[in-house]
TrEMBL record:
It is a multi-pass membrane protein. GO terms for cellular component: plasma membrane. Keywords: ATP-binding, Cell membrane, Membrane, Nucleotide-binding, Transmembrane, Transmembrane helix, Transport. Coiled coil: none annotated. This is ABC transporter permease.
Length: 585
């Protein structure tokens, strides 16, 4: 839904919660500071008036100088206080908005997040939300300050001589007309700019992640055309914005400063005619043209404002993705059933059709099938990363849609195909936010066969993992992930090709780790090495978008051609060895 500017600002203040009161106080300080701009002008005018009327005494000078002094002090102290309050409110609000968005993202289906690219989400969390600081900490108080100051001076000038005061406004009217032209259509341009920065961000992430590949194939940055196209796009968007806004901006600056061109000749003429006193003429000649230049920053605020509104819209778009709310506790029985499930990622091509599986509480099932058959899809549906299009998934005979989402995630452990380690220490990576003691973490790591290795590192469990877990080999990362799952101790365990990154020695360690992990749990394992199947109670074959056969190993082997052939190939492969010159040994 397209919200108006006012609604968007209202939304931002709502997100700010109680911190909006800092912002209100900051606005009040700004307002008083702006109004006090008139005090020094008033004092100078009064001194001049006394000089011209011959009544200027030492007392008059001292009194008005004191007033002038306090006027300036009040103005700056209040403006400074306003800045402090607005920054406190703004950064607290920014923190809240980021938490709100991140928290919401953890409750929405993965599918709706995958529709956006990583760069887009990063742009919202980082750049777009950061822009809100601009509005809260700067625009809001400065807008009040830059408007209230000139407004107060204008009112004062009207009291002194309303005709000349109105003439002083002529450049302002022209400047506002130009500003109107300048900002027409900028909302769309800013949206386009935000889109192009999001695309640049995601391409950059892809470029950095693919650095190994780029080096391996000796591809220079130029060969990464997607990246250079994104840079070009960003450049062309900002070129267009500058072209549209540059000339009117220059005109705005010049016109706002042009007050003197009207006030001096007209005021001088009236002075000569005797309808204006010398002190009023000087007051207008000095103040009457200058006070409008205080409005100059308004233009800058205006152009940033469009970006701020866009930032609010983008954050709201994420917050509007429907989240999984409510639901009951996790069932005490941990059987898993897929009942006639149909699922498509894009609502066009069905990956699963009428697919059914039945896994009893405490049973271990291996899911096998060709690459791309839909094995990972099945386990992602069980963890409710996506919702099924038709049919049901039941845990303990309860539809997973009825189970509280956080409860579901708490009670399901997943060891993914690709192990993701965060940048922190090893212990943080195993704890994953839990309160586990070091003894508990070590116990889990021992069962995962990785404790000895971690202890051999110079900083032991405090060793930093490095970006993308670069400090560890594939097999070590997998065992850390298994330690995580052992520590989590969830009753339902899902393993997706957890053994793929291992060499034979690692394999043995990983097998022991998995054996420890699986004890007493309902286990669903995507088996890429067929030997894993022998450790399971039954096996399910994913074929032709469904489960084509399910049962005990021997039974499926005798009934299902794919499975029989796969075992035949696997056994042949075990008997065969290769030498470097090619051909069989
Ligand atoms: N996020 C996604 N969006 C669209 N299509 C997807 C997505 N993830 C997987 N697919 C498609 O769904 C199909 C099944 O993928 P899935 O990863 O479940 O297969 P798999 O059996 O686990 O394969 P592998 O053994 O190679 O890991 C594939 O054709 C894949 O291209």
């Amino acid at each position: 839904m397209n919200k108006s500017k006012r609604e968007l600002i209202g939304l931002l203040l709502k997100w700010a919660g109680k911190d909006k009161y800092y912002l209100y106080l900051s606005v009040i300080c700004s307002l008083i500071s702006g109004l006090s701009t008139t005090i020094p002008y008033y004092a100078v005018y009064k001194i001049m008036e006394n000089i011209y009327s011959g009544t200027c005494t030492k007392g008059v000078i001292v009194n008005y100088c004191t007033l002038l002094f306090f006027g300036i002090i009040i103005r700056f102290i209040l403006f400074g206080t306003s800045g402090v309050l607005s920054h406190k409110g703004a950064y607290n609000a920014l923190f809240k908005v980021r938490c709100l968005v991140i928290n919401h993202m953890s409750k929405v289906p993965l599918g709706s997040l995958s529709e956006r690219n990583t760069g887009e989400i990063k742009t919202v969390l980082n750049e777009e939300i950061e822009k809100l600081e601009l509005f809260l900490a700067h625009h809001l108080p400065e807008l009040v300050f830059y408007i209230s100051g000139p407004l107060a001076i204008f009112i004062y000038l009207c009291i002194v001589n309303w005709k000349l005061a109105l003439i002083s406004l002529i450049p302002l009217v022209l400047a506002f007309l130009i500003m109107g032209i300048m900002f027409r259509g900028t909302d769309k341009m800013m949206e386009r700019a935000s889109h192009s920065i999001a695309s640049l961000n995601s391409t950059m992430i892809e470029y950095i992640s693919g650095m190994k590949l780029i080096k391996a194939y000796n591809m220079g940055s130029k060969s990464f055309t997607k990246y250079s196209n994104a840079v070009e796009d960003e450049y062309s968007v900002w070129k267009k914005i500058s072209r549209k806004m540059g000339p009117p901006y220059a005109m705005y600056i010049v016109i706002v400063e042009c007050g003197l061109l009207l006030i001096v000749p007209i005021g001088g003429f009236w002075f000569l005619k005797g309808s204006l006193s010398a002190s009023v003429f000087i007051l207008f000649a000095i103040v009457g043209s200058l006070y409008l230049t205080e409005l100059r920053p308004l233009q800058e605020l205006g152009s940033n404002f469009a970006q701020v509104l866009n930032g609010i819209r983008k954050a709201e778009e994420i917050l509007e993705i429907p989240a999984y709310e409510g639901g009951t506790e996790f069932p005490t029985k941990h059987s898993v059933e897929l009942r006639n499930v149909t699922f498509s990622y894009d609502n066009k091509l069905n990956i699963l059709e009428n697919c059914s599986i039945n896994i009893k509480d405490g049973e271990k099932i291996a899911i096998v099938g060709r690459s791309g058959a839909g094995k990972s899809t099945i386990i992602q549906l069980i963890a409710r990363f996506y919702d099924v299009n038709k049919g049901k998934i039941l845990i303990g005979n309860k539809d997973i849609k009825e189970i509280n989402y956080e409860e579901l995630l708490k009670n399901v452990s997943i060891v993914f195909q690709k192990t993701f380690l965060t940048r922190g220490s090893v212990i943080e990576n195993i704890r994953m936010g839990s309160e586990a003691t070091i003894e508990q973490v070590r116990e889990a790591a021992k069962k995962a066969q990785i404790d000895d290795y971690i202890m051999s590192l110079p900083d032991g469990y405090d060793t930093l993992v490095g970006s993308y877990g670069s400090r560890f080999s594939g097999g070590e990362k997998q065992r850390i992930a298994i330690a995580r799952a052992i520590l989590k101790n969830a009753p339902l365990l899902i393993l997706d090709e957890a053994t793929s990154a291992a060499d034979p020695e690692n394999q043995l360690e990983i097998d022991k780790a998995i054996h420890n992990l699986c004890k007493g749990k309902t286990v669903i394992i995507v088996a890429h090495r067929l030997s894993v199947v022998l450790q399971c109670d039954k096996v399910a074959v994913v074929e032709n978008n469904t489960i084509s056969c399910m049962g005990k190993h021997e039974e499926v082997k005798s009934k299902n051609k794919y499975y029989k052939d796969a075992w035949h190939d696997y056994e042949q492969a075990r008997k065969t060895s290769y030498h470097m010159g090619g051909g069989r040994a």
